Amino acid sequence: QTAEMKTENIPQKSPKKIKTVQCKVVLLDGTEYNCDLEKRAKGQVLFDKVCEHLNLLEKDYFGLLFYENSEQKNWLDSSKEIKRQIRNQVAQSPIQPGLEHFQGWGILSCSGYFLCLQLRQDIASGRLPCSFVTHALLGSYTLQAELGDHDPEEHRSDYIREFQFAPNQTQEMEEKVAELHKTHRGLTPAQADSQFLENAKRLSMYGVDLHHAKDSEGVDIMLGVCANGLLIYKDRLRINRFAWPKILKISYKRSNFYIKVRPAELEQFESTIGFKLPNHRAAKRLWKVCVEHHTFFR
Prior knowledge:
Elements: H1 2-9, E1 20-26, E2 32-38, H2 43-54, E3 65-67, E4 73-75, E5 91-92, H3 110-125, H4 132-147, H5 171-181, H6 189-200, E6 209-214, E7 220-225, E8 229-234, E9 237-243, E10 247-253, E11 256-261, E12 271-276, H7 280-297
Parallel strand pairs: 1-5
Antiparallel strand pairs: 1-2, 3-4, 3-5, 6-7, 7-8, 8-9, 10-11, 11-12
Helix pairs in contact: 3-6, 4-5, 4-6
């Protein structure tokens, strides 16, 4: 009886209050998605919430992106805590680039629609360079997808002004876009988006993830990671290419990034090529992107 009384007098601990943080994700259509997460939540939790919000089933093609500065983008690691990766940053929800097997749509899927949104942003911002002709053609498919058939009564001369197709959009380009828009009569939004993708994927920089670097002689270059391998650019021109089957090993040490390549036909030994990245984090980031691209596409 005494033991029972002692037990009853022990104060009960109140359940521990879970600390939460508010998270904001900017979606590709410009809208925002807000949610509360447990303070130590991992990236996968947020990613699953965004996919559920968008009713997105093909998760393998997507990722959450955040910027450390105006240029350097980072994919949110789903296996690590968010707070260890992002500090007061806004996450964006883009699709992974380089999905060249999206072909022959009947009805454009949710994934294809988001891919179009991502590509429109990349083209309008200049991250994905285009010629005048390609800008006009892709712009015309965007208008058909967003507005439907050209209507002379409704679509006056300035109806294009609210759309951004290129970094330096001119009146001449807008007139060409309007002219081509008239030729797409009868295309459904899904068909217009499908044609947009078919033309966009032919761009030389499509699906290429660029990283600033220097070569062994200290010359500024860009390293591009894509579905097929590692590309080397100088002054926006591609000067070399290493296909994944040719690369035996990729590694990094401090701010240096290395690839070991197979010997050519007349060579006997493997060769290692090194590049200098801005810092250790940039070298690790490039290594991680290479591993992920190789894993996904190979």
